[in-house]
Amino acid sequence: xxxxxxxxxxxxxxxxxxxxxxxxxxxxxxxxxxxxxxxxxxxxxxxxxxxxxxxxxxxxxxxxxxxxxxxxxxxxxxxxxxxxxxxxxxxxxxxxxxxxxxxxxxxxxxxxxxxxxxxxxxxxxxxxxxxxxxxxxxxxxxxxxxxxxxxxxxxxxxxxxxxxxxxxxxxxxxxxxxxxxxxxxxxxxxxxxxxxxxxxxxxxxxxxxxxxxxxxxxxxxxxxxxxxxxxxxxxxxxxxxxxxxxxxxxxxxxxxxxxxxxxxxxxxxxxxxxxxxxxxxxxxxxxxxxxxxxxxxxxxxxxxxxxxxxxxxxxxxx
Length: 318
Prior knowledge:
This protein has 318 residues and is an alpha/beta fold. 33% of the residues lie in helices and 20% in strands. The strands form two sheets. It has a seven-stranded mixed beta sheet, with helices on both faces. The protein has a two-stranded antiparallel ribbon with strand order 8-9. Strand 8 and strand 9 (275-277) form a beta hairpin. The longest helix has 14 residues, at 227-240.
């Protein structure tokens, strides 16, 4: 989905359900499997939307052991209604409203591309997850066309406007991008994998109508076209799809990592969004600490004694 200027999403929950939510059952199960979510865990869904992943997590660990957060009030309301007993809050990934080490696992599905600061959002997911716990995230394969629905749409758009980029520049949409972010932020035992989801359609109108709801970058782009251009895009999509009922597969890139022990000096961020380092003191000696690129940019001038080196921004005192 594409955020509004204040970081929220404006689409009603029911419209999102018909557009992207129909992929949630299969994608959520695959992501929960990748993160090894099982009974006895307390888990967090970051960017929960109306609750597609929240539903799968609740099924595995019990609703009372699930927390969820989203910046869109209408999605928060829908998720609360659908998952009574879950701790569902309004907020953004970059400033999660929970204390350090609150969860055994933090997961995010199809959200990293729309975080204002993806590295900071991932860092916050690590902060609220206990040492040895799991952070996992996935995003559609846009760059190589693995998300069939969106590939068909953007290919149709390029018949009208050949130079359009579509969603290819969004975070996480290229293979290896999420893995690189996890490693850069100091998560351990990072593994990249591919998830496959699917959705059923009763016919072409069931495919096309959700695009007209202006949900996400594709829908927003369609809404900006003239009526004649929209009809050309529609016709191109119709040509690419079969008659009658059909199913579409969608590939997502996924990364899973383990939160290191505090004595390994990982970066943490307080609930107010201010980053701090645990496991060492900036006034004394420490072995190493990891901070996000955003933190380096913001705080670097205040750290003249430290040297920074890729790929994990190792901070070293003299």
